[in-house]
Amino acid sequence: MSDAPYTRADVTPQHLFLNRRALIAGAAALGLARPAFAGSPYSTDEAPNSFEDITTYNNYYEFGYDKADPAAYAGKLKTDPWSVTVDGLVDNPGTYSLADLIAGQPIEERIYRFRCVEAWSMIVPWQGLQLSGLLQKLGVKPEAKYVAFETVVRPDEMPGITGGMIDWPYREGLRLDEAMHPLTILATGLYGKPMPNQNGAPIRLVVPWKYGFKSIKAIVRISLVAEQPVTTWNTLAANEYGFYANVNPEVDHPRWSQASERRIGGGLFAGRIDTLKFNGYGDQVASLYAGQDLTKDY
Ligand SMILES: Nc1nc2c(c(=O)[nH]1)N[C@H]1C(S)=C(S)[C@@H](COP(=O)(O)O)O[C@H]1N2
Ligand SMILES: [Mo]
What range defines the domain where residue 170 resides? Predict the structure, then answer.
């Protein structure tokens, strides 16, 4: 496995970044190994943030509220062995080892924009599997309308768990059509490496058209349910964090504008950039919300 296409990204300022295809072609011309994962039509051509940016500026409140806390403390989390319980309205419920759970599901690279509700963003080269394939394998019953997820709770390994305002586990959920959308992945790594603990090892959700808080980390439970599930940020402040949480520059957070965002790692020449509706994935996902008022279903 080679990290060749990324080595340059790690050291090259974004404004000088050669496009990815040129880098891959360049690597091939130099006789370097080909990248481990084939490109995907779902990936953006934008320059990925550096591995450093992606793994040192994190939100993962189980390890503390500061952006640097997850990188400092998440190493304590034991991610192997790992099992995931699948329950609810599903043909094949059970507690699966991670390997058994994802067996047979193709792992692809997906380079996605990632936009936090706090108005910062990054470009992340994930690798993972489409949630749709896993749900098909598990057999979703017709009565199921939503998918609910839970993060592991291990107070001994997660110093942020004690005290604080959150009723652990961290919980998230998607409507079934959102979960089945091909852009929705369960990510098992980034930059061609296993998922760093601070980014949600060993398996986390990534839903690129939604605010980052929907992309729940360190998943240990996947439940197929009939009703809209209770989710962490929506429970904490429903007027600030909706269940849908689609990236939307037209609907401000009550305490700040969502019209623009700060691209992390942009360096000297970076200013704020405009936030795109559905984080730029509108062509693919806007039809999921036809007929919904997104100022109410924020
Ligand atoms: N379990 C858990 N998952 C979580 C969070 C968290 O605090 N706990 N934070 C969310 C938020 S607010 C964001 S922006 C992303 C950050 O992902 P990253 O650290 O990989 O960039 O994770 C999301 N998933
Ligand atoms: Mo976030």
Answer: 4-282
CA pair distance 283, 209, nearest whole angstrom: 11
Query: Whose alpha carbon is nearest atom 11 of ligand 1?
Result: 213
What are 59-93's pLDDT values in tens digits? Answer: 999 999 999 999 999 999 999 999 999 999 999 99
pLDDT in tens, 131-159: 999 999 999 999 999 999 999 999 999 99
Q: What is the mean pLDDT of the chain?
A: 90
Domain membership of residue 291 (yes or no) is no
User: Ligand 1, atom 8: nearest CA belongs to which residue?
Assistant: 60
User: Parallel, antiparallel, or unpaired: how do β-strands 204-206 and 193-194 relate?
Assistant: unpaired
- Ligand 1 in reach of 211 Cβ (< 6 A): no
Domains of the chain: total = 1
Is beta strand 185-190 parallel, antiparallel or unpaired with respect to 108-115?
Answer: unpaired
Residue 62, ligand 1, Cβ within 6 A = yes
